[in-house]
Design a protein that fits this description.
By secondary structure, the chain is mainly beta. It is built from five helices and 22 strands. Helix 1 runs antiparallel to helix 5. The N and C termini lie close together (9 Å). 40% of the residues are buried.
Amino acid sequence: MTRLLRPASLLSALLFASTTSANCECGYTVNGTLYTDLTESDFLHLKDVNQSGWSPQDYTVPADKARGPYGKNASPKQIVFNPLKSQYDWAGDGIKGGDAGVQLFVGGGVPEDGLIPIAEMTTNRTDILYGSFRTGLKLTGTPGTCGAFFWYLDDAHEIDMEFLSSQFNASSHPVNLVLQSEDSVAAGFNAGKTDGFSVHQLPFDPSGGFHEYRFDWFQDRVDFYADGVLLTTLSGAGVPDSPGHLMLSHWSNGDPMWSGGPPEKDAVMTVNYVKGYFNSSDTKRQDDWRNRCKDVNAPNATCEVPEITEAPQGNASANTFFFSQQQNMTVNQTVLGDNPNTVESGAWSIRWSTQAFSTTLLLLSCVLFMEWWS
């Protein structure tokens, strides 16, 4: 009689098979470029910063160092998590009223202490080295602020998408695309005097609804997009080559040549998601990738990142694709969201898909029956 595997032995084999057959084990592709890691934050459904994988900034910069007539006071109080009322919705008012998502406020009026209240958040991960990064933003229509989505190492190594609300009017809706570099620092922090600066007029009002803003960072260039359409490419010595982190910022220092302000009333920038597909500079993360990626050409070993085709501001279009909300995804990735299929708090998630778990239980039941029958 054929000897059957004991249930415990077969269960171990099944567990091993289930954890090595997930999708995207070798990474994520954007226009043919492979990235090993992801981070995804669904701010439409997150209830507080502890679930988000981001840290609110808390600091004060006096006017003389803020490079404007006013200083800046970054405070967690200026950041409000305002998720949708239902986890099944993707658009509408948040539980606190107004646009759903995480809200970054700049305080209105002339500050008595000379410090304008501002909001800033940064990812907990600081190992981000090249990749594709996108966010769903609705900018303020109140003049006197700068809203920004950017990658940052230090003041001489930055990739910025910046929106100056004082520049918005009926016929002009520009986005400022910036590579802060050692050259721009030498020019008095004026990237406009370098080749790392471009102003691009958008065909829509950034304060009129949510749109996706994106930059793809390569070794030799940075490509900038809005709603999936390429805006421009910046290259040259200003392209960073060291790891850093992502940031969201909404600020003002009263500089009439940049942010303007302070705004006459409280101004809000709302974020409904941030997604990043990138390579890690962390040797542990690199080892993890080599251990899980056995064959980059195997079926489903790599996953193409879907591109949006319209602005994410309706209940259908705002339901953008998250790998972290799909089943049977690879283990050991950063998953950020308040969703039954995700792991919160920015932990390296060891994911077990519902499909794989159900299949394993079914097979194990069959094995136990066969063992009993024999």
